[in-house]
Each structure stands twice: as C-alpha cells, then as structure tokens.
C-alpha cells in the first residue's frame, strides 16, 4: 500500500540544482522533501574493484543500483549520475562561470540573448563560490602531477594560453599549505563520514573515497538535512500531476536495498513499494534527461506545457580526444618516453579558453584529464606480450643461468625490463573539449523510450575547432592523436554535460520555463537543473546550474514572503 505525505516543497533530484534549491528553501524554514532515485554513497564506499565497477551502473530492472546511467542515442551518447548528490558525485570538480559575452548566441544567423544575463547570475555565482570554496590546483603539487605541466607546455606551443581553473576540492585541512591525506575537520555531513584532503589519486570521476570533493551530499544536502529537510534516496518519481485543490501530487516507486543485485520488475508494487506525496510547490531537478523525460511522460496531465518541450537539447560541445605514447626526440630516430602520468593529480588541473570564430559562435575550452591508476595498469597489461618479446634476451639469459647453475641473485633490473617501455600508460593524456555548439536538437518520446535527433553535422564548427586544437597539443607532446574513442558501432560523440529540453524563454512560445525556472502555465511547478539551459553553457556547466538554482530558490522565497 502506498504512503501519503504532504510537504511545502518536493524536489525531484539531488544534483547541483536540486541540492542548492533544497538547502536554500529548508534554511528559510520551508518543509522540503528531496526525492533521489539513486542510493546514498559515502566516502569510502565508491566502487574500485572489478566486481564493484561491474555493478556501478544504473538499471534497477537488472538489479543494478549504481551511479552511472549511460544513454546511447543514434549519434550521441550521454553519461549521467544516479545517486545522492547527482552529477557532483562523478564530475571533475571544475567551477567556471559562463562567459559574459556567451549569454548571447546565434540562432539562424541572428543574435539571440538568453532571458538571463551574467549580471543576473553574478551574485549567485558569488554565493555558490563562497559555499564551495573552489581553489586552483596548487603550485606546490605541480611536481607531483606531470600532466599539468605537460598540458600547459604543449598548449602554449600550440598557441593557447592556459590557466588553472577553480576546483571544488579540499587540498588543505585548514586553508594553509596543501598536504595530501590529512584529516578534515568534522563537518557533520549526512553520511557521518570522516574526510581527508585530496590524495592526488585521479579517481574524481569514480567518486571520491577521501571525501576531498565538495560534492552536493557533503555540502548543500547535509545543510538541508540539518535545517529539517527530508532526504529520500532510492525513490524514483514516475508520475506528476496538478491537484484540484492546488499544488501537485507526486507518485514514485522505491528501489529497496535488498533488491540490489537481483533483476526486478520495478512496476510490481510488492517488489518496489509505491510512494505518494503531495506538495504546494514541485521542483524538477532530475537533470536534462530525467526532467525532460518526466515532463514528456506526464504531458497529458500538464496540458498547458509549452510546445517547446524537448527542444534546445545539446551536449555542451563535449568532445574527448587522447594523446597516446607521448615522447621526445633525443638523437636520430631515438625517442624518449614523455612522462605524463595522467593518474597523478585531480582529473582536471589546467584549461585553455578560445573565443568565438567569425560566425560569433564555436568558442571552446580545452582541459587536461586524468584517470585512476588501475586504468594505467590495464593499459600496460595490453602491452605485456610485446614487452615480453622485447625482453626475450633477458629471459633467455636467466634461463641459461638456471640451466648452468650460475645464477645472479640480483634480479631487480631483469624484472624491471619485463614492464616494457611504459609509453602506453605513462605517455597517455586525455583531452577534454567543450564549448558553444549550435543548439538544434530535441528530445522526444517513442512510446516510453526517450530519443533525440541530435546530429554533429548540425551542431556547428565547435567540434572541428576542438579537434584541431587537441591534435596540435598531441603534436607538441610527440604523441599519437585519437578522437571519438567509442567508435562507429556506437554513438561517436559522448557528452557528460547534457543540457536543454525544458529551456527558459521569455514566454511559452520561446521556452518551457521563465528566467526563474517557473513553468509557464503551471503555477508552483519549476525546473532547476540543466534542462532549463536554452543553449550551451560553454565551460563546465555545474556552477552555472547551481547559480541558476540559487536565483530560482531566492525567487520562490520572495514569492513566499520569506526574504
């Protein structure tokens, strides 16, 4: 039997938009309930072993309750998060503001300005930054993270100017000199978990087991809970509808912990108990795909939704490339290994920004990227047969010594040769690109299946510019260049920054929500996540989404007479 409860506000989703909204409203005295489909994952509980990583994906019907939700459309793949804290669990910590001039973009060759400006968001950027205290990668750690210096030098050689972007990471325990692995002061987080400073392990995108990342569960959601908010993980919303007496009804199913690992019919109430809630205000913050899907599925119950629902979908110009087997010329044909060691440091340390082209679009950012150490070992294992062949002389000599009885007991150098030249793992650097793609695509339903007509061909010149700049960096590093790693049998472009679908506009003909995220035609219903973005943000969009949500929450409090 379903339960029923009423709240002033129900927030669906717990990422940057949902957590900021919940915190602001709860701290102002409103009764807030946060619904998150994924589970709570504390520092120290993120997957690392092969078995854990195999189960780290999201598909409850197959018994998977993990934090990676992977979508594959015809020409675009998307990776989003499922877990308490949303995308903050797996993002790379970068908090960059949207460029002031990029609030205007080209639509059909005509300049079009977003309904909000940089000036509108500036005080909210300030507030989020004060809360999350982002700081650039410390100078003191440059010698520990060769990739930071390698990327900066190669980018400079390619004519790009670099900087170290602000990272929402604790590098020191008291604001002093950075020191890895030091205990952080008890912050009364909702997991009651001990935390420590960044250990430079390169595992940010797998979830930070040190608790050094200032994720939403450790910050805004913990504050919201202390202020009295109800936090309900493992609760997936299926139905939303207006109530005749005002407000909204929300129906959800729970994904019990005991069903994890067991294929489950998630529509069976005996296996996934239903929950019914009512609220005066409903905030959708389930991310671009989640929020748009909910609105599309419930469109018949929300008859006044704008016809623009599903439009302005984009991947923020995301592009990934790889530099492989980086090296330096020594003499003749000899090449020396270039030690980049992408597994040392946070995932991103350094960035470059390039402005728009003559069309007034296609500006972009490039960033270095890291990866966990076990990825480096996997790469090295792929080269072991070659390494063993190259070490054949050593192996033959050791065999002869064993046969003759003349054995040198010192085998250190012999064993070292078995590792090969290490150019594959030590000389690899992923390069992340993102920027101003032309926003042309829509999300739509085919039955209950979410689809998109996104096409790189129509996304503008940003991909070509990013690819050319990434190749130039690979050349500077003396490495081999590779892009679109997924290949032809799967969507070649992958985004981790999906945006749009319920875009803001000045009226219902132009967008689904207004400049504050309020849904046109449905009082009390609002959107506070990346779905409301009417185009590409350009840089990593997390900070802009959080600032937009802060402005959205402030507007609600003003309407409620609580400011």
List the helices and strands and how they pair.
Elements: E1 3-12, H1 16-27, E2 32-35, H2 50-54, E3 58-59, E4 64-65, E5 68-72, E6 76-81, E7 104-107, E8 110-113, H3 118-132, H4 146-157, E9 162-163, H5 220-226, E10 230-232, E11 235-242, E12 248-254, E13 274-284, H6 287-297, E14 319-324, E15 327-329, E16 335-337, E17 351-354, E18 364-368, H7 373-382, H8 384-390, H9 392-404, H10 412-417, H11 423-426, E19 429-435, E20 443-446, E21 449-452, H12 462-476, E22 480-483, E23 493-495, E24 525-527, H13 542-559
Parallel strand pairs: 1-2, 1-13, 2-10, 6-23, 13-24
Antiparallel strand pairs: 3-4, 5-6, 7-8, 9-17, 11-12, 12-13, 14-19, 14-22, 15-16, 17-18, 18-19, 20-21
Helix pairs in contact: 1-5, 1-13, 3-13, 4-12
Entry keywords:
globular; 24% helix; 563 residues; FAD/NAD(P)-binding domain; 6-stranded antiparallel β-sheet; alpha+beta; 13 helices
CATH architecture of the largest domain: 3-Layer(bba) Sandwich
Question: What Rg do the Cα atoms give?
Answer: 25 Å
- Overall structural class, as computed from helix and strand content, comes to alpha+beta
Number of domains: 2
Using DSSP, what is the number of strands?
24
Fourth-level CATH superfamily of the largest domain: FAD/NAD(P)-binding domain
Give the helix proportion (percent range): 10-25%
CATH class of the largest domain: Alpha Beta
Distance linking N and C termini? 39 Å
CATH overall fold name of the largest domain: FAD/NAD(P)-binding domain
Major sheet characteristics: 7 strands, mixed
Strand content: 15-25%
The stretches of 5 or more residues where confidence is low (pLDDT under 50) are 380-384
**Average pLDDT metric:** 90
Q: What's the number of helices?
A: 13
> What spatial form do the alpha-carbon principal axes imply?
globular
């Amino acid at each position: 039997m379903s339960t029923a409860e009423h709240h002033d506000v129900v927030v669906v989703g717990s990422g940057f938009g949902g957590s900021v909204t919940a915190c602001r409203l709860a701290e102002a005295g409103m009764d807030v309930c946060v619904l998150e489909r994924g589970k709570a994952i504390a520092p120290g509980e993120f997957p690392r072993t092969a078995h854990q990583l195999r189960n780290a994906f999201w598909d409850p019907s197959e018994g998977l309750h993990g934090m990676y939700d992977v979508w594959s459309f015809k020409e675009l793949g998307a990776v989003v998060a499922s877990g308490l804290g949303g995308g903050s669990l797996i993002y790379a910590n970068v908090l960059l503001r949207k460029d002031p001039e990029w609030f205007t973009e080209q639509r059909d060759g005509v300049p079009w300005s977003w309904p909000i400006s940089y000036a509108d968001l500036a005080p909210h950027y300030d507030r989020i930054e004060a809360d999350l205290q982002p700081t650039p990668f410390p100078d003191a750690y440059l010698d520990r993270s060769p990739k930071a210096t390698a990327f900066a030098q190669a980018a400079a050689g390619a004519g790009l100017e670099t900087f170290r972007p602000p990272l929402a990471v604790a590098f020191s325990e008291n604001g002093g000199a950075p020191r890895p692995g030091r205990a952080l002061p008890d912050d009364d987080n909702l997991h009651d978990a001990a935390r420590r400073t960044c250990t430079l392990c390169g595992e940010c995108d797998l979830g930070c087991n040190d608790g050094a990342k200032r994720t939403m569960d450790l910050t805004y959601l913990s504050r919201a809970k202390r202020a009295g908010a109800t936090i309900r993980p493992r609760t997936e919303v299926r139905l939303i509808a207006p109530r005749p007496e005002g407000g909204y009804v929300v129906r959800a199913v729970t994904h019990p912990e005991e069903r994890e690992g067991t294929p489950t019919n998630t529509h069976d109430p005996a296996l996934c108990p239903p929950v019914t809630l009512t609220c005066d205000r409903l905030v959708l913050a389930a991310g671009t795909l989640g929020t748009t899907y909910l609105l599309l599925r419930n469109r018949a119950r929300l008859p006044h939704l704008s016809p623009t629902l599903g439009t302005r979908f984009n991947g923020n110009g995301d592009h990934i490339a790889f530099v492989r087997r980086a090296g330096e010329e020594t003499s003749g044909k000899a090449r020396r290994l270039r030690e980049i060691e992408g597994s040392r440091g946070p995932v991103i340390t350094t960035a470059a920004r390039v402005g728009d082209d003559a069309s007034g679009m296609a500006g972009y950012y490039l960033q270095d990227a890291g990866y966990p150490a076990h990825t480096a070992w996997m790469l090295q294992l792929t080269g072991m047969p070659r390494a063993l062949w190259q070490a054949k002389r050593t192996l033959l000599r050791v065999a002869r010594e064993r046969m003759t009885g003349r054995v040198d007991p010192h085998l250190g150098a012999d064993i070292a040769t078995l590792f090969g030249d290490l150019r594959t793992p030590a000389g690899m650097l992923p390069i992340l690109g993102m920027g101003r793609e032309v926003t042309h695509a829509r999300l739509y339903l085919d039955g209950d299946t979410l689809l998109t007509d996104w096409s790189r061909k129509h996304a503008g010149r940003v991909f070509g510019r990013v690819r050319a700049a990434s190749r130039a960096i690979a050349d500077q590093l003396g490495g081999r260049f590779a892009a679109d790693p997924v290949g032809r049998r799967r969507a070649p472009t992958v985004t981790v920054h999906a945006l749009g679908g319920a875009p803001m506009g000045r009226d219902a003909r132009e967008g689904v929500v207004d400049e504050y995220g309020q849904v046109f035609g449905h009082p009390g219903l609002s959107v506070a996540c990346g779905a409301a973005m009417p185009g590409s943000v350009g840089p990593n969009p997390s900070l802009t989404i959080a600032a937009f949500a802060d402005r959205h929450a402030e507007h609600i409090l003003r309407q409620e007479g609580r400011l």
